[in-house]
């Protein structure tokens, strides 16, 4: 018979995402309500290997539901990718009486959780990433906040692009997944979209589209470019040379990972 779980650990790993704090809060309070002990593990698998582990109570997660980032901190840990690192992690869990771990993170963090499970530690993954790129789940905590942050920023870029009659290439995050780009392209009414899942490398088609739209009297042209395609700056230079129209690239970057989580992200994070 499987050993009874009395103590769980919780960690956040990989890129942070808005709503991770709400998820930590839900895990801690639900576990305590069910009579479990909870240990917080700081800085992902790196903190596990460094034994940055502390006892959590109800008050440890007070006043965090609305905050971006993660109170546990997060990190990328190369050592945990090795079998020796995974064995060490499992031994540290046993040493601290941790019977199971809740890992909140993206697909890489999930792979880590699988490896820990193979070393005999029960693991549960909660999908937390702005990229929406985890298999077998419809949603990942953080995506809604990220697309709303990006959408607001792109609206602002559109204002100035229109005033100056410029072409704008806006690059959004997502690693190899195009979900943020796709949702924003629709929500912001972009003229062109470049997705890693469906890219034909046909820049001439975009150039023709820009020239065509300009002839029709359009004062701006927004191209939504996914991080997985990248090269927004050089693309802007080529498009400017080909069209004769001022073209600017804006790479939104880390602002997409921060900020107070939306209602959807808080509620999804609470559904543990
Ligand atoms: P995310 O979880 O946001 O996708 P990463 O891909 O960087 O972020 O993964 C986070 C961490 O998960 C890595 O730094 C590493 O410690 C662990 N990890 C990723 N892939 C593996 C793997 N194949 N085996 C073990 N651990 C992994
Ligand atoms: O996974 C979230 C994410 O923000 C991706 O969209 C991006 O590719 C990556 O993390 C950036 O990671 P880092 O924080 O290591 O620069």
**What are the segments in which pLDDT stays under 50 over at least 5 consecutive residues?**
none
What is the residue-mean pLDDT, rounded to a whole number? 96
Largest sheet: 5 strands, mixed
Structure classification:
alpha/beta
Kindly give the count of domains: 2
Strand order of the largest sheet: 3-2-1-4-5
What CATH architecture of the largest domain do you see? Answer: 3-Layer(aba) Sandwich
How much helical structure, as a percent, in the residues?
25-40%
> Could you give the order of the helices and strands?
EHEHEHEHEHEHEHEHEH
Overall number of strands: 9
| Proportion of residues in extended strands | 15-25%
Task: Output the keywords.
alpha/beta; Rossmann fold; 2 domains; five-stranded mixed β-sheet; four-stranded parallel β-sheet; 9 helices; elongated; binds adenosine-5'-diphosphate; binds 6-O-phosphono-beta-D-fructofuranose
Q: Could you characterize what this model shows?
A:
The chain is α/β, with parallel strands linked by helices and 272 residues long. The chain has two domains: 7-128, Rossmann fold; 146-257, Rossmann fold (3-Layer(aba) Sandwich). It has helices at 20-33, 44-49, 83-95, 107-118, 143-163, 179-187, 203-215, 232-243, 263-270, and strands at residues 7-12, 37-41, 53-56, 100-105, 122-127, 167-172, 192-194, 221-226, 247-251. Strands 3-2-1-4-5 form a five-stranded mixed sheet, sandwiched between helices. Helix 1 links the parallel strand 1 and strand 2. The two termini are 25 Å apart. Bound molecules: adenosine-5'-diphosphate and 6-O-phosphono-beta-D-fructofuranose. 6-O-phosphono-beta-D-fructofuranose is lined by residues 15, 106, 129-131, 173-175, 227, 257.
